[in-house]
Amino acid sequence: MDDKKVSILGIPFDNLTRVEFLARLLARMEANQKTFLVTANPEIVMYAKEDDEYYNLLLKADYVAPDGIGIVRAAKKLGTPIKERVPGFELMLGLLELSNMHKKRVYFIGAKEEIVEKAVNNAEKLWPNLVVAGYHHGYFDHSDSAMIDHVKSVEPDLILVAFGFPRQEKWIHEYLKAAGHGIAVGVGGSFDVLSGKAKRAPKIVQKLHVEWLYRLVKQPSRYRRMLALPAFMQEVNKQKALEKTKKKRDS
Ligand code: UDP
């Protein structure tokens, strides 16, 4: 049952809790299995519909986590409920916690120079046993393989890539082709939060599942991106109607 994937608009999500995700990722880290982890929100799912290359990339991920309540609602609507939402930011914190406990090597790549530096400083304070294999800002030519060679050469067990989608997943795919091991995950704007530059919504807002509204108020420039959510739900309704028609026809 655990291993069942739940397809939402063609993206195969793993139906695992946060704890189950972390347990599996730790096992893979211990076994030196390279792993492509994607945390996908409705915006990413909608984007993948428009970009075939990106869509095919997502199909190659070892794990796809349901990042956000929109995905959970969609799964329920489609009659294939998933256990819980697994926010990318929390998965990142969990992976850092595990890396700290097991003395794993972490590479931070992405965001502006001063942001990634602060994020790494904060991470070192929060997790004193963390082994920082290195860090680099995210404003370089992403098609230049020199960076892949560099990161690979310091042999990280965990690579956090904060370029925003689809850039981060495209880079990770190339990186993992070259690297021998490591868990690589795109973490979007998480370094901005870890550095203290951007704030996550207060606990109560997160509980009420209206984090998107809080973000919108704090950062009106996100408005255009937020429009992906209603369009996403509309697509989910379409998928549901299609499945209903198919069922009727087949019965
Ligand atoms: N970013 C980066 N390199 C780039 C573009 C963006 O490192 O070429 C970083 C940016 O500084 C931010 C993160 O990627 O920390 C997320 O950026 P954005 O908000 O544009 O991405 P989204 O949240 O839309 O995926």
Automatic annotation (TrEMBL):
Family: Belongs to the glycosyltransferase 26 family. TagA/TarA subfamily.
EC number annotated for this UniProt entry: 2.4.1.187
PANTHER family reported in the protein's UniProt record: PTHR34136, UDP-N-ACETYL-D-MANNOSAMINURONIC ACID TRANSFERASE
Species per Swiss-Prot/TrEMBL record: Marinilactibacillus piezotolerans
Name of a matching Pfam family: Glyco_tran_WecG
Recorded metabolic or biological pathway in which this protein acts: Cell wall biogenesis; teichoic acid biosynthesis
Free-text function comment from the UniProt entry: Catalyzes the conversion of GlcNAc-PP-undecaprenol into ManNAc-GlcNAc-PP-undecaprenol, the first committed lipid intermediate in the de novo synthesis of teichoic acid.
Keyword terms: Cell wall biogenesis/degradation, Glycosyltransferase, Teichoic acid biosynthesis, Transferase
Name of protein: N-acetylglucosaminyldiphosphoundecaprenol N-acetyl-beta-D-mannosaminyltransferase
